[in-house]
Amino acid sequence: MEYTFADVGTPAGGKPYIIDLNVGYNVSYLDQIYLPVALAPCRTEPCNSPDPTAVGYLGTIQSVNNFRSTLTQFSNTQGWPLYNDSLDDATRPRLPGTDNVLVDRVNVVEKHQPSQFTAPGVAVQNLINQWNICTSNAANTNNCPQYKIYQEINNYFRANYALYRKASSTDCPPSTSYPVPAALTPLNIMPYVYGWVPFNSGCPPSFNALATSPGPKQVFDQALFDYVHSLQYNYRSAKLPQQFFNPFVDLVHGKLQANGYAFSVDDAVGYQNNPGEGLIVAIGGASGLPNGQPIVPPTDFTTDFVVNLGDSKAQQRPMWTSYGICKNSADTQFPPLAPGAPVDTPQIIVDTVAYQISPAQPCTITVTDANTRTYQFTIQMPVPWPSHSGTGFDAQVVTCVNKNDGWCTDINELSTQAPNPQFVLFTPPPLPP
């Protein structure tokens, strides 16, 4: 866990400095995983009572025993290594993250050094084999359904390595502490890929940055998008476990249902910054947390669209109260607003894959306000939707349940494509009382 208790910024002209008393915090399972922890900001002291308007927790509220049991089962069934250390034993499992496992594999196989871990098993061998197959000339849709993305990432990192090797000794003297291989192999490139780090050992930190080397920005943005959404999270869609790009992500986000960092650019929920006078740390349960619900992750536009409901406060309209997804009833309450909240603009995030939305199986979104008035519209297809400007909506995507409903016909749709896709519906505020 990492945290800070203030943000310091500078205005456009420099001084005076601006100090924002926010709490910044994250939970990282990137390097290793061994204990369940949940973090939440303390909005106002004392933080000793439930507060449903508070920010949800980051991390996990599993018990220590259940958490350790899941780690042990994953290690036993997947052959995932454990640390070789006097602090670790069968009752206190500690598992290394994927990047550390791969660094260790390079040290053992190519540098003939002793391992830090127990012997790796099937999951580690599978991901190494999968990388070798998918980046080879023999790759095809049968032996590697995502081989084009594997090769996109492999080519980008090989180009980054080539530019590093061309650097002059003045700009980038060789480093004795972290020597870079004189030649790339299918194995020794993997720690850089899984760590999402450039080849720049011995150089200034800004040298050979992935965002610009080889670039250009559009190519980098597409590579990063594909790496995160199509590879790191492919455990959700891969048909066979041996096709998982990173089974450790499945452990953290799938089996443990924990939010936080499972890999270095796992930023969906990994870092939080919220107003607060302190930080609450809960280990092995929810005791002490003001809100026992996890923080809501942002929209994943590879599968989701989001509905932004119009502000009820600006025009003194009845507040939004509840919603239903793919239902004719609104059976889920919106969280209460925080004290003094200036706007009432709740969001509804809809996973079009999980709800199996299609032209043959459309999905009706139902919303109610404080006057018990019901608002409805229907979604006709999963994302990605066709591009749309943000004014009005595409009739292929959205239809109004009541054709004469002026509220529905004023919905606006914004649809943009990869590498930065967005699929957003903006509704009007609730109707007047």
Q: How much helical structure, as a percent, in the residues?
A: 10-25%
Query: How many individual domains?
Result: 3
How would you state the average pLDDT, rounded?
A: 92
Helices and strands, in order, run as EEEEEEEHEHHHHHHEEEEEEEEEEHEE
Proportion in β-strands: 15-25%
**How many helices?**
8
Tell me about the largest β-sheet: 5 strands, mixed
In the predicted model, the low-confidence regions spanning at least 5 consecutive residues are none
| Radius of gyration based on Cα positions | 25 Å
Instruction: Record the strand order, biggest sheet.
Output: 14-11-20-19-17
CA(first)-CA(last) distance: 48 Å
Number of strands: 20
Essential attributes:
5-stranded mixed sheet, 433 residues, 5-stranded antiparallel sheet, 3 domains, alpha+beta, single chain
How are the secondary structure elements laid out?
Layout: E1 2-4, E2 7-9, E3 18-20, E4 22-26, E5 32-33, E6 37-42, E7 58-59, H1 64-78, E8 95-96, H2 98-109, H3 122-134, H4 147-165, H5 190-195, H6 217-232, H7 247-255, E9 271-275, E10 278-283, E11 304-308, E12 320-325, E13 332-333, E14 347-351, E15 363-369, E16 374-379, E17 388-389, E18 398-400, H8 406-409, E19 412-416, E20 422-426
Parallel strand pairs: 11-20
Antiparallel strand pairs: 1-4, 2-3, 4-9, 5-8, 6-7, 6-10, 11-14, 12-13, 12-15, 15-16, 16-18, 17-19, 19-20
Helix pairs in contact: 4-6
